[in-house]
Amino acid sequence: MVHVMSDEAASLMPPIDARHSVAGVRDRLRAAIMSGEMSPGQILSQVDLARSFGVSRTPLREALRMLQEEGLITAELNKRSRVATPNADELELIYSTRLLLSALATAITLPLMTRADLAAMASAMAAMKEAGERNDMAAWRRSDWMFHHIHMRGASASLQRDVASLFERASQYRAIWLRDEPHRQPLILADHECILRGCQARDASAAVRGVTQHLSRIALAILAYIDPAHEAVTLRKAVRMTDASQH
Length: 247
Description:
- By secondary structure, the chain is mainly alpha-helical.
- The protein folds into 2 domains: 2-83, Orthogonal Bundle (Arc Repressor Mutant, subunit A); 88-245, Up-down Bundle (Four Helix Bundle (Hemerythrin (Met), subunit A)).
- The chain is built from 11 helices and 4 strands; from the N terminus they run E-H-H-E-H-H-E-E-H-H-H-H-H-H-H.
- A 4-stranded mixed sheet has the order 1-2-4-3.
- Residues 1-16 have low confidence and may be disordered.
């Protein structure tokens, strides 16, 4: 089925500034994918999308290429682009890699954290809780990203970029399969509290354990939807590696 964005959906999105049309189209397409407006496996018509967005096909093609690099879109030679279809093996690899890199970035950052950093983490966590109570998942994700960014921002710029890319790719699975429901569960908030307490105590083992528990919990929840019979061997190995590194 070829996707044609509804006039109502298009009208709800902000207009694209011509000076930033590629980034604007990319962001609008990403938002449509993450929200479920464009479903996995759906064919994307460049003609129809260009018409909906009011842009030429040149920036649209570049935006599609960028989203293909992010893993949100797939395209075969001489065939139309499609919204990527998540699979268990890819999800497990994304979360396993994110878990290992996040643990490393946290261990690097912890000795560098200031009182202001800890206060900012506490503020972000409070904002997450409030956003969850309002059912404002966009605000929840922004606060969630800020919370995790703070306890990892002492790592190198290249490591932070890799973690950010994995965060975006993981968010696709989370949004499509779970609709962010787990983020209102007490256990998920408790994971953030564990990370914060570990950082406040300057306890790298506790902070890394909180990160590991948090990411593995989400990954296993999504895997249960995608493929309940999937054996998460890679993910469990990544968890054991982070545990072993703290002893």
